């Protein structure tokens, strides 16, 4: 537990970091400071781009942006975490292969402009404590914080849902990662103390209160996600192929979300090997999300945990997006008394696991899981106790002063 606390305080970023950085670089106070959180997905993996259900939580790790408008159309952004700056014009927004971190901000600016918002240029300092490349959606936090900073400075109307959609577009069509809507949505709409049940087709959502007696623990394998872009796109194609085949027998099916477990069982033989596996995961995972929400509402953490475990097995066996490090971490967690459930979280191929742990077992979890993981892999993991936090927000003067 001590090491968990230490780890967290070592890297924790605050509003004051970007504010101070801004003053040093631009010689004046920023007009606004905003933050957007990273996220951890409790259950519903690889369901969002199948029009299905997800249950993520916005976490108490953020990307912070301090910004002021400029009188011209130049955008100047300094990233404290990379100690690098970029300058570009809103009249000519292009990808930057030398500083790929800036493509998220460029993509957001590009699509805000494309939607007709009259953006001012801006000076900005950005920093974050969402670990990069670990499946906690630092990229969505960058996009959403940046879009919101522009919204605050320019004062235009954009709903939280539309903000999330715009940021997803920036990631899909500017950065080139064909992600679903989950990450940007929860970064924009998450709520303290709650998970967010999102219907990724209708974009309707419900806040689901989290039980006070259980804690969300994220364990970082420290294996940075490899392969993820190409494999992610392959999985998407396999799901689409499954839909095309199932449509011959179930013409009303538009996405895997429309296939019930019973229908899948009836027709699964029409699907070939990998496509059948991928579809099986998605169909059952959607079902698991709905069951897990019912379990949370009923206060039945044992059932919720069992569904998390089943999700992991399905991601490992059928969807094939786990990796040895994730499996080792999850299996170590399963052995600790007081752990309701544990699974990989996010796209997979490295990154983090998420576990739901009884409050009194957290200490044990930290010691035992870290030791087992290190023994098996030789890698020291990072373990974070996470709180469910609000989605994107602007900081008031008072908060900035502390
Ligand atoms: C990544 C994507 C999300 C989602 C998950 C898998 O995080 O950005 O849209 O598809 O993978 O559930």
Overall structural class, as computed from helix and strand content, comes to alpha+beta
Sheet-strand content, in percent, reads 15-25%
Secondary-structure element pattern, one letter each: HHEEEEEHEHHHEEEHHHHHEEHEEH
**What summary fits the major beta sheet?**
6 strands, mixed
| Rounded radius of gyration (Å) | 21 Å
Spatial arrangement of strands, main beta sheet: 5-4-6-3-1-13
Total of helices: 13
Describe this structure in words.
There is one protein chain. By secondary structure, this protein is an alpha+beta fold. The chain is built from 13 helices and 13 strands. The strands form three sheets. Strands 5-4-6-3-1-13 form a six-stranded mixed sheet, sandwiched between helices. Strand 10 (339-344) and strand 11 form a beta hairpin. Helix 5 packs antiparallel against helix 6 (182-189) and helix 7 (228-247) packs across helix 9. The protein is globular. The model is unreliable at 1-10 (pLDDT under 50). The chain binds alpha-D-galactopyranose. Residues 45-46, 48-49, 137, 179-180, 182-183, 346-347 line the site of alpha-D-galactopyranose. Alpha-D-galactopyranose binds at residues 45-46, 48-49, 137, 179-180, 182-183, 346-347.
Task: Supply database-style keywords.
six-stranded mixed β-sheet, binds alpha-D-galactopyranose, alpha+beta, 402 residues, four-stranded antiparallel β-sheet, disordered N terminus
Write the layout of secondary structure elements.
Blueprint: H1 2-11, H2 15-26, E1 32-41, E2 53-54, E3 56-69, E4 74-79, E5 84-89, H3 103-114, E6 122-128, H4 138-154, H5 160-175, H6 182-189, E7 194-199, E8 205-209, E9 214-220, H7 228-247, H8 261-267, H9 273-297, H10 301-317, H11 324-334, E10 339-344, E11 352-358, H12 362-377, E12 382-386, E13 393-394, H13 397-401
Parallel strand pairs: 4-6
Antiparallel strand pairs: 1-3, 1-13, 2-7, 3-6, 4-5, 7-8, 9-11, 9-12, 10-11
Helix pairs in contact: 3-4, 3-5, 4-5, 4-6, 5-6, 7-9, 9-10, 11-12
The structure holds alpha-D-galactopyranose (GLA).
């Amino acid at each position: 537990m001590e090491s968990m606390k230490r780890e967290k305080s070592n890297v924790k970023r605050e509003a004051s970091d970007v504010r101070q950085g801004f003053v040093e670089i631009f010689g004046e106070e920023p007009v606004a400071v905003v933050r957007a959180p990273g996220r951890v997905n409790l259950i519903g993996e690889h369901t969002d781009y199948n029009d299905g259900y997800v249950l993520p939580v916005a976490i108490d790790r953020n990307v912070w942006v301090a910004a002021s408008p400029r009188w011209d159309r130049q955008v100047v952004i300094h990233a404290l975490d990379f100690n690098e700056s970029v300058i570009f014009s809103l009249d000519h927004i292009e990808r930057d292969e030398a500083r790929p971190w800036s493509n998220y901000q460029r993509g957001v600016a590009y699509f805000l402009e494309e939607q007709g918002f009259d953006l001012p240029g801006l000076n900005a300092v950005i920093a974050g404590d969402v670990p990069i490349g670990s499946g906690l959606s630092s990229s969505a936090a960058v996009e959403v914080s940046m879009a919101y900073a522009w919204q605050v400075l320019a004062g235009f109307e954009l709903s939280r849902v539309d903000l999330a959609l715009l940021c997803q577009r920036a990631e899909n069509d500017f950065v080139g990662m064909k992600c679903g809507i989950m990450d940007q949505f929860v970064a924009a709409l998450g709520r303290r103390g709650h998970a967010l049940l999102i219907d990724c087709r209708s974009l309707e959502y419900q806040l689901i209160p989290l039980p006070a007696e259980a804690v969300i623990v994220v364990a970082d394998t420290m294996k940075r996600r490899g392969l993820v872009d190409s494999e992610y796109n392959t999985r998407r194609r396999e799901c689409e192929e499954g839909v095309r085949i199932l449509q011959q027998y179930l013409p009303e099916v538009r996405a895997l979300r429309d296939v019930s477990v019973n229908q899948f069982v009836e027709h699964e033989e029409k699907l070939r090997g990998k496509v059948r596996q991928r579809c099986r995961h998605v169909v059952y995972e959607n079902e698991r999300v709905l069951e897990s929400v019912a379990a949370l509402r009923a206060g039945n953490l044992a059932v919720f945990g069992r569904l998390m475990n089943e999700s992991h097995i399905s991601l490992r066996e059928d969807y094939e997006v786990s990796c040895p490090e994730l499996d080792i971490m999850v299996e170590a967690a399963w052995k600790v008394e007081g752990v309701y459930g544990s699974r990989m979280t996010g796209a997979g191929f490295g990154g983090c696991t998420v576990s739901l742990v009884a409050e009194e077992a957290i200490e044990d979890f930290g010691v035992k899981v870290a030791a087992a993981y290190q023994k098996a892999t030789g890698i020291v993991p990072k373990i974070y106790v996470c709180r469910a936090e609000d989605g994107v927000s602007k900081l008031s003067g008072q908060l900035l002063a502390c």
